[in-house]
Amino acid sequence: MRYTIKRMNKMRFVQSTGLWGLAAVMVLGACGPKNNSKTTGQAYNNPKWGGFANPKYKGQETGPGLVLIEGGAYTMGSTEKDLQYDNNNVERNVTVNSFYMDETEVSNLQYREYVYWLAKTFVDYPEVYQRALPDTNCWRSKLGYNEPFVEYYYRHPAYKDYPVVGVNWQQAADYASWRTDRVNEMILDREGIIKYNVTADAAGENNFNTRAYLANQYDFLKKGKKPLKDYSKTKKKDSKRTRVIMEDGIMLPEYRLPTEAEWEYAAQGNIGETQFDNVDQKKIYSWDDYTLRIKEGKERDRGKIRLNAMRAKGDMGGLAGGNLNDAGFITTPVYSYWPNSYGLYNMAGNVSEWTMDVFRPLSLEDMDQFMPFRGNVYKTVLLDQYGAIEAKDSLGRLQYRDVTEKENANRRNYRKADNIGFKDEDNYNNGEMTYEYGVTSLVNNKARVIKGASWNDRIYWASPGTRRYLDEKQDLSTLGFRCAMIRIGAPVGNSKKRYNKLPSSGINKKTKAKYR
After folding, report:
1. How does pLDDT run across 229-271, given as a tens digit for each residue?
2. Taking the complete model, does pTM exceed 0.70, yes or no?
3. Contact at 8 Å (CB) between 445 and 432?
4. Residue 338 is part of a domain; what is its CATH number?
5. Residues of 413-425 as b/e, b for ≥16 C-beta within 10 angstroms?
6. Number of domains in the chain
7. What does the pLDDT read at residue 82?
8. Would you say residue 355 lies in a domain?
9. Between the CA of residue 459 and those of 81, 142, 166, 192, 301, what are the distances in Å?
10. What is the DSSP letter of 335?
């Protein structure tokens, strides 16, 4: 019966549309091959049909040092009592996209690798190297003897796996940008697309920069053993290319600092704590229990402190003779203690961490419900008078300028470049949100949010929702950072999970379980 109805409907369609309708049916039926266009029926990746490329894409790979954090909705804000009575972090529901985050804080060894590269690459610009060096004098205290840490902490191999400190916000952001370029040049070389030699190819402004490469600003890169196919070329000898474009999906998105919302979400580690869209336990810390010591699990772990923080006034690490509670007088190695449910280490203690956000006391009222963030300054690539990309700067990077209101006159989502002070109209001073900077407050557009407790903090700051701020040009011996990266595409990783889709027929319990 079903077949008869389909046949009758097909006949009616042909009768009403004539031969053109029949031809359309035949063409649509011929569009069966998987790699043919559903628009035209013409083949992708075929020089005969113009060579429009549709490359295979298995999903975003996990970059070095990163852990996938599956996004979702959560309650952002303080779960601890507001001891300072600031009332600047009242709970509210927000959603973050899936993203990646460093498994640990950036260590001294990792940061020294970065500074070494700068010194070797920019020989003619020694100020670049000098500008990136951590402030080792951050350890000094007027009433404490910390000179050994000034001398040894950053460079001595005894501390190579300890978190780097004395790094300001701008230095941390620059490190993340550098890391993006080094990872992507490694990927291009690993895949055999280019043959890259850092010693020979990374001198001065010729160092590899991801954005400049995507803008086709390099002509000196050597072809690797496995260049990509250029399907637009009909001759075989011309059908190889070494230039990767965004549509190939080979290079990774940028490393960056996490937003406040991302950091707090990752620190809470609610994955595995939900049932029927409910979070059954409201956690104060990054772990399930309300105490600092381990009560359950392996016998050898019971009674041990979970994080590196100040347990009581003047108690930095416990008593000698086998009773060192967290064994961290200052910082500890980045893989110390136990990871949270996302596999992240030291999200509660060791060092506080920089985030991307500009601090505002009323962030809870102003921000979006999806990917909340304050700090957007929109820019565009600098072009010359002929519309071509302006030459790279002396460090080999593309040059950018702020967007203008004139070129965004027809936009509804934004007009100005600098949106840091958006919704701060009542407190503007020539476009700068001041909060009487230096008189009653230190909040301005350079104040960045820092999260988490440090080795020198009481346990109150270990709650993910607590927040503080510091000027982006300042640094502390208690402050470090880790990097993050957006997850592109499917939020659940490179799996076959079916986003609530079920077969249209034949549903049974076994099938439902498979698609959950």
Report:
1. 888 888 877 778 878 889 999 999 999 999 999 999 999 988 8
2. yes
3. yes
4. 3.90.1580.10
5. eebbbbebbeebe
6. 1
7. 66
8. yes
9. 12, 25, 22, 50, 20
10. T
